[in-house]
Design a protein that fits this description.
- The protein contains eight helices and five strands, in the order H-E-E-H-H-H-E-H-E-H-E-H-H.
- It has a five-stranded mixed β-sheet with strand order 2-1-3-4-5.
- Strand 4, helix 6 and strand 5 form a beta-alpha-beta unit.
- Helix 7 crosses helix 8.
- The termini are far apart.
- It is α/β, with parallel strands linked by helices.
Length: 151
């Protein structure tokens, strides 16, 4: 397992992805998939940019990682700026990713309890930059945010 400083460094990569998504006119949620100290997949929410129903940040990172052996997923950590929703949590469970590090869950509490109940280690860093980014976006774009979370 990575120490807190290591988690924060990888979360910074996910946060850079979130900011890239915002700069593209999208929803600022980013994610990176890390295997043995290397980013093997990175992405951000591209629902707006691609007109997609499913391209959340975690899904984009998994898509960009490409096809991987099951053993690779089982030896990886997923970093995400926001608590994973039901869809993204399902993908985490499907591929057997054992560890998820979450930037924040104040603006949206996803399926952390489900993940934990299925043996996934979930750590929430309560990162102030992640919180501020999402709070600012939600205040500026409430309709788009509600669409993204299915409200």
């Amino acid at each position: 397992m990575t120490d807190l400083a290591g988690h924060r460094a990888w979360l910074a990569e996910a946060l850079a992805e979130a900011r890239a998504g915002l700069a593209e006119g999208g929803i600022p949620i980013g994610s990176v998939l890390v295997h043995r100290g290397q980013v093997i997949g990175r992405g951000h929410n591209r629902r707006v940019q691609r007109g997609s129903a499913i391209l959340h940040g975690e899904m984009d990172a998994l898509e960009n990682a490409g096809r991987l052996a099951a053993a690779t997923y089982r030896d990886s950590v997923l970093y995400t700026t926001l608590s994973p929703c039901a869809m993204c949590s399902g993908a985490i469970l499907l591929y057997g990713i054992p560890h998820v590090v979450v930037g924040e869950n104040r603006t949206f509490l996803g399926e952390e309890a489900l993940l934990r109940s299925r043996g996934v280690t979930v750590e929430v860093l309560d990162d102030p930059d992640c919180i501020a980014l999402m709070q600012g976006f939600i205040a500026a774009q409430p309709g788009l945010w509600n669409e993204d979370i299915g409200v």
